[in-house]
Amino acid sequence: MSSIPSTAVLVVVGAGPRATGLLERIAANAPELWDEAGNLHIHLVDPHPPGPGRIWRHEQSALLRMNSMAEDVTMFTDESSTIEGPIRPGPSLAEWAAQFSGQSPRHAPHTEPADPEVLTELRTLAGTDFPTRRVQSAYLDWVFRRVLTELPPSVTVEWHRTTATAVTGPADGPQHVHLADRATPLTAHLVVLAQGHIGSTPTAEHRDHAAFALRHGRFHLPPEFSADADLSGLQPGEHVILRGFGLAFIDLMALLTEGRGGSFRPQADGTLTYLPSGREPVLHVGSRRGVPYHSKTRYRLQGPRPALPRHFGPEAVDALLAEGRPLDLRRDVWPLMAKEIGFGHYHELFHAHPERTALAWADFIAAYDRPGWYDDDMAALVAMAVPDPADRLDFEALDRPLDGLAFPTADAFQDHLRERIAQDVTRREDPEFSADLGAFLALLSVYGQLPRLVAAGRLTARSVAERLDGWWHGFFSFLASGPPGFRLRQLLALSRAGIVHFLGADVRIGTDESTGTFTAISPTVPGHTSHATALIEAYLPGPSLDRTEDPLLRGLHRTGALGEEVISDPTHTHRSGLLAVSPEDGRIVDPSLGGPHPRRIALGAPTNSRAVAAFARPRTNAPAFRQNDAVARALLRALRVTEAETATSPVDDRPLRV
């Protein structure tokens, strides 16, 4: 048996950015942790191309764009990364693109994208541009190909362009990954699930709306990824209610206007005019807040980068956990988070725009460090040191901008919201307000500290349900994950053209059997009801193991081989819909084993690690990069032992070979 070459085998289900990031960390850590005398074969299973995967595949509309500037996207670790493995810097999307205009040396392995439109975009792409998703697809494709060249010769990768349908095998033996296009499963020592964002079947409410649409010959679209949405059933001039005002709405807006032949004409005053094609539907949009996400900033910091974290870092989390009591996010944690975000905001304001402050920075920060965010002393300090209220950070006003407002007519509300959106775009593109970017960077820092707090299990069940997964996730997205400014200028043009109508906050959707129409009402415009023959749920599918469209996860869940995250305390039970994994190494919690499965790991969006983003802004110590590194090192250690054992003993009655 010892004369048969031994091979350790890893199957990674999913080949998108998260799987690519894991491979990059395997390549980085292999010189330390992998014995070159042994062989490691990695199977990637994904029907979509490795690197981009499903969400970032090239085959989607050229109208769809990222909501990040090109210089703010990277797949590589840097000096900010707090990881055990080696840091291996690499180019950001903007730095990689610069080679195609001759502004930088070529990055190996160099090939030009086959799509001439993508190549043209790359040649003119500036760091502050918001690229198309097709350009990001090309970047991710290159990252994957680079990673393959960085793996040692003893580590090989094979891509299976198909869907993994099941994983079977004993906890103490080989794992069998069943594929949709072949009868014989892949046999592996370890399996990693990295499917990324996964769709889900409709909820009961969505099924009711679909049944209503079917009865009356109407159109209904449940939550769906924009690139996959079939909008062909919407007729020109048809009135459509869209519930959701985030990035999914922005994508749908582009597909239903420019995507149907309309165009935007710039005006001398910087505004846009929409030239309709006549094929557009009429869009009525509302949400809980009733306003679109804040525009992304399009400037850089004007002052020095703030030293983050300061008020909500590892020491603050340690202190919270040391209290040994249940924690409520809004009561116990949010004041520290708010103070951290405030620090980022005021650090930039005082350093970049000192003429708008009334105190020296050293004096301000000495006083700022002492009180809590909601203490009277803090309010007095800010009022004294920051004379203009427009320069102060008011989270409550940001969070619910339409609270307490009611308009006599729908037209009056349209005028109000158009003015608000225009002001937001102007502010987010004017470096005089770069304090907003300081707050954004602190938001990212805060986001990176939360996974450890959640993993400790100290937050109450209701706090996780209503505050973390509910309020915080929405508030973070509202402030930090908005569209580029040009999209909101397009929204304004569409509103003026009568293609888009704003519904208001706390929108409620209903049905009218007598007219066969969907209805929408909002307290923002009391007494006003909008009717439409189509309803679109303009947001992404939420996590749900009960309703997941992924056959592998669905099968494991139904057989009790994986568990949903359930957080319980005497007052509440929260079922998050997320796959429960061990916080240390991402191993899947298997209820049948009473703990983590020794041979199955899961990463990314479907898991309760909540480290969702597969790529990141440079120099932000991204949580996903930290997790990828920890998991890659654990995998290599485990596979090294497995490979050594395979050389001398049979697995499943025979040596494991590829």
TrEMBL record:
Signal peptide limits: none
Domain FAD-dependent urate hydroxylase HpyO/Asp monooxygenase CreE-like FAD/NAD(P)-binding: 11-197
PANTHER family: BLR0577 PROTEIN
UniProt name for this protein: FAD/NAD(P)-binding protein
Organism: Streptomyces prasinosporus
